[in-house]
Amino acid sequence: MTSTTTTAPDHNGGGRRRLAAPTVAMLPRVVDSLSFLYLDIVRVHQDDTGVCAEITTQRRGSETVYLPTASLACVLLGPGTSITAPALATFARHGTTVLVTGMGGVRCYAATVPGSLTTTWLEHQARAWADDTRRLATATAMYKHRFGPGQAPPGATLQQLRGLEGQRVRALYQLLARQHRIGRFRRAYDPDTWDTQDPVNLALSAANTCLYGIVHAAIVALGCSPALGFVHSGNQQAFVYDVADLYKAELTIPLAFSLNASTQPESEARRSFRDGLRLFRLMPRIVQDVQTLLAPDSPQPDPDETPDEQLVDLWDPVTGPIPGGTNHAPDHTP
Question: Where do the record's region annotations for Disordered lie (predicted)?
Fold first, then answer.
């Protein structure tokens, strides 16, 4: 699945034979994907076997590492990384989101969007976002999701929920600071003073960026827009921040405090975060949570069902979507 070409004998005595492009049914579902891969100071290119990262060091010379493109949800390209067009095309065919990030995965500057995606969930998102009543209901549901079942006060306004969420996060910071005996903690994110920040803030920023990458990958794999947020707005990753906030208290915040004495908090945060994702089963949770939030009254799709490839539909204000790729002219012209 990771290769686009292969060398094999044919009936004419040898030569190259191109493998067929992967179909929707061949591709792994996003809920089955691995987490993410962060790369920096490497050259990513495509050869006859697959996509590989070429690493050159003074001590070990040049080494080649092949990447499991069909199983990666997203790849974060840090500074010093170059990628060829064939390699980028292979990532796109396998539905892997490619993010261009700053040092250590901090800040996301750009991201690819896989093609051939259904618009079903984008349409659910656009309808919920464009209607103020539904947008308020979705934003409220997101806050209640963070509190846990039955923990949000009944009838609370959005402003009250924002305040309660702020108190909850502050209390979590205080609890973890006491547990790890680090004194008073204050959350700070300032790229201009990055090197002077304490290990907890460095680890939290690095882990959050990895979380944003995974959430971004899941959102675009569903065909949704990262820009149409319900709690956040005014940024191309507003919906990414919305969804990522659902998991920070469980994933990134405790991890960051556990690295308070680390001499390399950023790299350790990325490794520890990646190692814990399989146990946490983050990808299936993101997919299920996004679908439930955007269409709470719609039946959820069967997680074991393989998606079918479909042609583009045509919109009709009376009947709804009708099949595309069909000549709709009358059979008999009067």
Answer: 294-334
